[in-house]
Amino acid sequence: MHTLLDHFAPAALPEEAERFRAQVRGFLAEHMPALPADRRARSWLGFDAAFSRALAAQGWVGVTLPRAHGGAQMDAFSRFVLVEELLTAGAPVSAHWIADRQSGPLIHKFGTEAQQAFYLPRICRGEAFFCIGMSEPNAGSDLASVGTRAVRAAGGGWSLSGRKIWTTNAHHCHYMIALVRTSGTPQDRHQGLSQFIVDLSLPGVTVRPITDLAGDAHFSEVFFDEVPLADDALIGQEGSGWAQVTAELAFERSGPERIYSSIVLLDRWIDWLRARGDTRHAAAVGRFATHLAALRGLSLSVTARLAAGESPVVEAALVKELGTTFEQEIPAAIEAALGEEPDAPVDAELLRTCAYVSQICPTYSLRGGTREILRGVIARGLGLR
Ligand SMILES: Cc1cc2nc3c(=O)[nH]c(=O)nc-3n(C[C@H](O)[C@H](O)[C@H](O)COP(=O)(O)OP(=O)(O)OC[C@H]3O[C@@H](n4cnc5c(N)ncnc54)[C@H](O)[C@@H]3O)c2cc1C
Predict the structure, then answer these.
(1) What is the dihedral angle through the alpha carbons of 38, 40, 45, 50, rounded to the nearest 10 degrees?
(2) Does domain 4-128 bear CATH number 1.10.540.10?
(3) Residues with Cβ < 8 Å from 366, sequence gap 6 or more?
(4) Whose CA is nearest to atom 2 of ligand 1?
(5) CA–CA gap between residue 330 and residue 339 (Å, rounded)
(6) Residues designated catalytic
(7) Which atom of ligand 1 is nearest to the CA of 98?
């Protein structure tokens, strides 16, 4: 009988990856900017190009990319440790984040030798920041219905027109990898989609930042008005955009990123309880610790399959779904605990951190694919639909 356990064989971090952890901690002790917890809680929305370049100078942006293209050629376990340390410290990783985790691996997998030689070393040096142009006003979950279109231009190359939305960091990035239609109509669904690397400094590109509920502007709306693209802006095969984007989303959904979004708040709360000698919430803290240990085990198991060259799409979806639920439970529980004593003096930094995470946490189960969509992927993977 095929059971869930077959999907999640236990995995442990190799000793080498644990040794690497000490190096990462040493780097953070030296380079991590001194930020209050409510700033650190932003972590992968926190943009700091200087920090990303310092990390790149260490060789740790594009860690899994080949040395020949400027990467560190480390394995998926080392990347797990690096990401785990950066996120638990609340490091501002947003500048290089998408290039490191998604665009670099995509270019490595589908790019021509010339595209790899041009983009990958710049990603690894922290000089080329990328964003992801998938969602559109009428195509979020239903990505196959994207309407942004690239048509062949008379003098060669392509002309791109349309609109993307919720594009994280578009206003800070050099390039977007955009999913667009190159033939047929949105009704043709998976047919006729392609991916392009769009230089955001080209004429015809307009980027308009959007302010979120917490007052930050970390994503944007991007307009394309007959943007001229060279032939070599196409990445992979024309018409293969759907298959490529599916592979790209597997990079996005795997890894420990989907467990740690509320960890700075949890740590800050535990510090505060400890400082007050308050043991009333020990059971809640214990539950979070055991829950985290189990999630981390699942995430490591997915990492082991990635390291073995597999593409565990369903398992990654399951970890993201469980991980984001955990990330959303933390602010709810802490808010409730603080609310039990409305008159007790509370540390202002803890309150600000809790307020920020509570406001932003609904996005955890939207970005990278919503909870309902992931549950559909999991159900299909388990043969339930
Ligand atoms: C912080 C943040 C950062 C983001 N960054 C990026 C980015 O960098 N690039 C990018 O391209 N996009 C980005 N997104 C967009 C994100 O991927 C989309 O918001 C998401 O895919 C949902 O699409 P939508 O907003 O159009 O909602 P819709 O697709 O309209 O969905 C609305 C609701 O209906 C549900 N629903 C939709 N279809 C189904 C179905 N078939 N079955 C059951 N329920 C369904 C959804 O789960 C959701 O609850 C970001 C979003 C957030 C919140």
Answers:
(1) 130
(2) yes
(3) none
(4) 367
(5) 14
(6) 252
(7) 8
Per-residue pLDDT of the chain (385 residues; tens, 9 = 90+): 456 667 788 899 999 999 999 999 999 999 998 999 999 999 888 899 999 999 999 999 999 999 999 999 999 899 999 999 999 999 999 999 999 999 999 999 999 999 999 999 999 999 999 999 999 998 999 999 999 999 999 999 999 999 999 999 999 999 999 999 999 888 888 899 999 999 999 999 999 999 998 888 999 999 999 999 999 999 999 999 999 988 777 666 667 888 999 999 999 999 999 999 999 999 999 999 999 999 999 999 988 888 888 888 888 899 999 999 999 999 999 999 999 988 888 899 999 999 999 999 999 999 989 999 999 999 998 889 8
366 lines ligand 1 (CB under 6 A): yes
| Centre of ligand 1 from the C-alpha of residue 300, in Å | 26
Topology of domain 131-240, CATH: Butyryl-CoA Dehydrogenase, subunit A; domain 2 (2.40.110)
For the entire predicted model, the pTM comes to 0.95
Mutation choice for ligand 1 from 141, 258, 363, 377, CB with most ligand atoms inside 8 A: 141
> DSSP state, 170?
G
The three state secondary structure string of 221-275 is: EEEEEEEEECHHHEECCCCCHHHHHHHHHHHHHCCHHHCCCCHHHHHHHHHHHHH
Atom of ligand 1 nearest to the CA of 131: 8
Name which residue sits closest to atom 40 of ligand 1, judged by CA.
373
**CATH homologous superfamily, domain 244-381:** Butyryl-CoA Dehydrogenase, subunit A, domain 3 (1.20.140.10)
Task: Confirm or reject: Cβ of 245 under 6 Å from ligand 1.
Answer: no
Query: Does the Cβ of 185 fall within 6 Å of ligand 1?
Result: no
CB-based contact 83:257 (threshold 8 Å): yes
Interval between CA 136 and ligand 1 midpoint (Å) = 10
Helix, strand, or coil (residue 350):
helix
CA of 132 to the centre of ligand 1 (A): 13
Domain range summary for the chain, segments of one domain joined by +: 4-128, 131-240, 244-381
